[in-house]
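quick one, 251 residues, struct below
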Amino acid sequence: MAQDTCIEFNDVVAGYKDFMILNNLSFKAKRGTITLLLGPNGAGKSTVLKTLFGLLKPRQGTITLDGQRINGASQKELLAHGIAFVPQGRNLFGQLTVFENLELGGITLGMKTTHERIPEVLAFFPRVQDRINSMASALSGGEQKQLEIGRTLLLRPKVILIDEPSIGLSPMVVADVFKLLRQLADQGTTVLMVEQNVKSALKISDEAIALESGRLVLQKPASELLSDPHIERLFLGGAHGATESSTLASA
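---
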């Protein structure tokens, strides 16, 4: 059975003041898949996530979730629609405990529901569960990232937007995070990810989208891109070169 479109950008223009970063960007992401956003620095990858989560307002075009237009919706409204955002870096309350951080993550749910869901979330993260009463600032970088993702999972989101989850983490922790994202997608969650660890991310992704100057230049199954010998050029040197190389390789 074909998977339905979950997220669709149609001719989206967005940026800061007079500087546009996304330029007539159009793409689709299927429900229950991991879509990886690729491209050189400044291509607009993180801007896609910020625009989708309402941190930037599109100047033009439409963004839809399950066919419903969500342009201009507030973060609270988007959370209610089932969209959750895990931004780059650490975004915890360091002087609060792990448990208190989780409570704050579920503040829109009410304490009763939050307390009911905390054990099911912690089941994904045994190391965090062992430190439930520790200050968040005392956790390792990997434990902090897991706590951030766990806080997001309290909301049982339909869509997870995650920006550079591997930054500052050991390879073992990165593997755990990627495994969890794959598991969530297999259970029906749609994941849109920006990640610098391209080859590892492609291994768990379904689709790859390459951007350059805020425009779509390539979209294909992640498995096909993983086997492309020019993948490093795609990530570091611009997507057009990879597109041309891919065309030549398949000719």
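Residues 237-251 have pLDDT under 50 and may be disordered.
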